[in-house]
Amino acid sequence: VLVPARASETKPQTRPDVDSITAALDVIGDRWSVLILRAVFRGVTRFSAIRDDLGIASNLLTSRLNGLVEESVLERRPYCKRPLRYEYRLTDAGRDLSPVLISLMHWGDQHRQGGNAPTVLLHDDCGTPVRNATHCPECACEIDATAIRSEES
Ligand SMILES: [Zn+2]
To answer: pTM of the predicted model, to two decimals?
Structure first.
């Protein structure tokens, strides 16, 4: 089921044939793909862990992971040789989706949760809640996508 990433697996990264939102939705327009990315951002990176986290069928997860690797948003890395097992890591293009997911979450908090956030995101360095997707008001700095943690609120 799990096959290694190869250069030939990835698609060309430019899409002059469509507008940019269409091109982005071709990558993350699928609900499972967004939820998989949410899991990987939270540090859930192995096939079985993602499957259990999302309650997704294995065949669907395989298909979505292959798509995200093909789109160069995730990459496979071996974490065990016998048996050979892979984990999924964000590429630079994947990490650049952090503000998109955070904005989606904040929109859901405001417009679908009555302003009650079930989960809060914190800047890892200082523990300040992240409101803007990329900037910490306490540290007055840009926040790297890997320096955000989530907590139940
Ligand atoms: Zn901070």
So the answer is: 0.85
